[in-house]
């Protein structure tokens, strides 16, 4: 069987493979045509007696992957405006960050330092213990207590006389009242 006869004989199988890859009949036909063109151009690299079917299926698959890569939009990260990476915070996000900032400032200094070093800076507990001259167990305990306290404060589990809770509740109530009245709550965030 000649090379061209083998190409013609395998076309139905290539169409099935192409259709399974592209899930579009027209795109599948184009893919098969491109793969056959590639095979004809590389005809001299095929070794007679080896698996022609596998060779053709590999060409088709590689052509599909190449086409995907060509269609994928690429941009140098330095050319993308910084605004593409971030979205402006909503009022609720601003409130949550303000709550978190206030809660962080209320933590004992050793717990706040441990939390920042482990969570934000990605330091290991061992490195934290060495940096703060304490045992590893103490470092872990400080981070655990800081997380637990922040979680309690942020979820509203505070004593009824807690000044932070009272202030945050008053601010949230004022924002809700302004929203119900159809007014903006932007000016409340400024105070």
From TrEMBL:
Gene3D superfamilies noted in UniProt: 1.10.1740.10, Winged helix-like DNA-binding domain superfamily/Winged helix DNA-binding domain
Domain RNA polymerase sigma factor 70 region 4 type span(s) in chain numbering: 99-150
Keywords: Sigma factor, Transcription, Transcription regulation
Family annotation (InterPro entries): RNA_pol_sigma-70-like, RNA_pol_sigma-70_dom, RNA_pol_sigma70_r2, RNA_pol_sigma70_r4_t2, RNA_pol_sigma_r2, RNA_pol_sigma_r3/r4-like, WH-like_DNA-bd_sf
NADP in keyword set: no
Domain RNA polymerase sigma-70 region: 11-72
Keyword Chaperone attached: no
NCBIfam families: sigma70-ECF
Family to which this protein belongs: Belongs to the sigma-70 factor family. ECF subfamily.
Protein name: Sigma-70 family RNA polymerase sigma factor
Organism encoding this protein: Gluconobacter vitians
């Amino acid at each position: 069987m000649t090379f061209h006869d083998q190409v013609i004989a395998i076309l139905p199988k290539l169409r099935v493979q192409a259709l399974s890859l592209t899930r579009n009949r027209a795109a599948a036909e184009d893919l098969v045509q491109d793969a056959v063109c590639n095979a004809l151009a590389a005809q001299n690299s095929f070794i007679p007696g080896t698996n022609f079917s596998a060779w053709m299926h590999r060409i088709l698959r590689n052509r599909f992957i190449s086409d995907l890569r060509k269609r994928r939009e690429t941009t140098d990260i330095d050319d993308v405006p910084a605004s593409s990476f971030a979205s402006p915070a909503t009022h609720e996000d601003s409130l949550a960050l303000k709550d978190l900032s206030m809660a962080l400032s209320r933590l004992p200094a050793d717990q706040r330092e441990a939390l920042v070093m482990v969570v934000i800076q990605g330091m290991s507990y061992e490195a934290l213990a060495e940096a703060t001259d304490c045992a590893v167990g103490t470092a872990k305990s400080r981070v655990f207590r800081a997380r637990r306290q922040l979680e309690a404060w942020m979820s509203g589990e505070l004593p009824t006389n807690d000044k932070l809770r009272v202030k945050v509740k008053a601010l949230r109530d004022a924002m809700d009242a302004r929203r119900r009245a159809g007014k903006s709550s932007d000016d409340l965030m400024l105070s």
